[in-house]
Design goal:
about 325 residues; alpha/beta; 2 domains; globular
Length: about 325
């Protein structure tokens, strides 16, 4: 059965998750830090040692080292190894399943992003909402809204937990997204547009995404003169298809101190990260409808053997009657 994510529990813990994100951003690469959260206070407090588990609450341990006595003191233990760096979460079970579900869903994003910052790389999360038959839009391109309101809020939380949100030119043309965090509390991410042939620049006068500061266009086309001051263009190499390698664009973002990216669309853009092995985490929302035809959620090269398909380790969450699948690529498979 999927673990149910309740909106009331998310609302209660969300300010603390934003605080944790801010705390992690201040840590030095070699820091070992313990932070304990207790629901009654609603905030994190740094602590000097694991000690005995609190009556209620949870602890985030960040830094080099080993488990020590923490796995015994805090029996619910999650760990994300990142190049020898230990990112661990210890949860006292009496906190309640509704809170554990929220932590289990969002902490991997925060800790993965922190590990990427320490390693000088970029943590990449993808998200897609599809119908039961794997469609993300009707044949005419209409797609709003396949998912329910719970998932729309979830996508805005993912925006708030990442340094940047990234889409391709097709998404900008079809959906005219703002890519802000209107539905939740938090900071707007940097908006990154990928357009190998530069088609997205043709939409400058008519799309909302270009109207506010914090917009970066990565393109292989010639950069035009007279761009608005809120739009920054970066020129990158493209292949014969006009495609920018995802590793190259991530290197550009890392050099700009962007260490976590939320890839929100469209299918071709997200599929590029999967195909090229640069996706760290995928959130796949399955809506309770069938479209029958239209655009597929993924656009990957044809394979001739089932064993050649990329495989993932999955966990399942319930979102107001619909299902969210957390999928982690199995590297080297």
């Amino acid at each position: 059965m999927p673990t149910t994510v309740e909106e009331t529990a998310v609302h209660a813990i969300w300010p603390a998750l934003l605080q944790l994100r801010a705390e992690l951003a201040t840590l030095a690469p070699d820091a070992r830090c313990l932070m304990r959260f207790r629901p009654e206070s609603g905030v994190f407090r740094r602590v000097d040692s694991y000690g005995a588990p609190a009556a209620t609450g949870w602890l985030v341990a960040v830094g080099p080292g080993n488990r020590g006595d923490a796995a015994t003191a805090w029996p619910v233990f999650w760990e994300l190894p990142v190049a020898g760096y230990r990112l661990a979460v210890h949860v006292e079970p009496s906190l309640g399943p509704e809170f554990l579900a929220v932590l289990r869903l969002y902490l991997p994003v925060l800790l993965g992003a922190h590990g990427a910052r320490i390693g000088g790389r970029v943590f990449v999360t993808g998200h897609v909402a599809q119908s039961l038959d794997g469609r993300v839009a009707c044949t005419n391109g209409h797609s709003q809204w396949i998912s329910n309101l719970a998932n729309q809020k979830h996508s805005h939380r993912l925006r708030a937990l990442h340094d940047a949100v990234l889409v391709g030119s097709g998404t900008v043309r079809a959906d005219n997204p703002k890519l802000t965090v209107r539905h939740v509390e938090g900071r707007h991410p940097t908006r990154v547009l990928v357009s190998g042939r530069g088609q997205v620049l043709e939409l400058l006068p008519s799309r909302a995404i270009f109207q506010d500061a914090g917009c970066v266009v990565l393109t292989g086309a010639e950069i035009p003169q007279g761009l608005p001051e809120q739009v920054r263009c970066v020129s990158l190499d493209v292949d014969e298809r006009g495609h920018i390698a995802t590793a190259n664009l991530l290197n550009v973002l890392a050099a700009s101190q962007v260490h976590s990216v939320f890839v929100e669309g469209g299918p071709a853009t997200l599929s590029s990260f999967i195909e090229e092995g640069t996706l760290d985490l995928l959130h796949l929302h399955i809506a309770s409808m069938i479209l029958g035809s239209g655009s597929s959620a993924f656009m990957l090269p044809e394979i001739t053997r089932v064993s050649d398909g990329p495989r993932f380790r999955c966990a399942h969450f319930g979102f107001d009657g619909e299902v969210l699948i957390e999928a982690r690529p199995e590297r080297g498979s």
